[in-house]
Amino acid sequence: MKILAIETSCDETALALVEAKGGLKSPKFRILKNIVSSQTAIHAHWGGVVPNLAKREHLKNLPILFKKLGKPKIDLLAVTVGPGLEPALWTGVNFAKELHKNIFPKAKFIGANHLEGHLYSFLLSLEYKKQKTGIKNLFPAIGLVVSGGHTILLLMKSLTRWEKLGETRDDAVGEAFDKAARMLELPYPGGPQIEKLARVGDPEAISFPRPMLNDKNYEFSFSGLKTSVLYYLRDNPKAKKADVAASFQKAASDVLITKTARAVKEFRAKSVLLSGGVAANKSIRKELSVMSYKLKVNFFVPPIKFNTDNATMIAVAAYIQFLQKKNRPIKANANLNL
Description:
With 338 residues, the chain is an alpha/beta fold. Helix content is 40%, strand content 20%. It has two domains: 2-120 and 306-323, ATPase, nucleotide binding domain (Nucleotidyltransferase, domain 5), CATH 3.30.420; 136-301, ATPase, nucleotide binding domain (Nucleotidyltransferase, domain 5), CATH 3.30.420.40.
């Protein structure tokens, strides 16, 4: 099955052409095209994504990117319908509707969940491609989805059945990274800048709090950690920024790793699946990999280019959704969840 996927949930305009086969028992994907047009330089001046600017750029970029695909023959057309910024989502939805009407009228048409795209991106990992035990032997699994808008811990009972164990009660971990970066006067986007600066800092220099670390649940909270950084910088104006970045990153990471490890043990998981934009953080990737090795479970994380927003993961989610014969309205839903 050949899939054309469109992703415009935030500030990345992305299209992908993917060949999928294997069904739910052994899904496999061949990436024919993966095109992403970033708007980072445009939003950097504002220190964050401006929805109407993102919409304007999507409207400009979508026809340009589509031309780069040539004249593909497809079986399935998929577009992200949420969650995300509503003005941005509508550009992708409306563009996809025009394509379906005028160019691909015979193709199946699916509205995909952006978070399911992240969740299923483990199917693009090198580890998944190498494994030979069969997908059913990877479950139960603990899925950790970490991004600028979400921090969610899931118990995946199978590829298509999961239960949400917990999520953030306030700021997502990626949002906390961006806000801490702003306090440190680092360029946008803040997450990668924190990671870069943390490499030359001491992660033990400052004892920032680990919110909800010892609570007997799988909920998260990062607003208190963010506020601690604010007060520390206020009270220590000459503090080494690298130490602040490293200590902040360690505090956030400790919470993610500890709660994931606890879930692995409680539910006797066979695998850990890491996804979302924050999964591009090499320190967090490494710590979760080491934790998984110690607990003798599989660890799956896609290549970094598939952690950040892209349309290939939307094609993967759409394929799984199509196989389940699941339909959702093809209209923007900014608050769509797992």
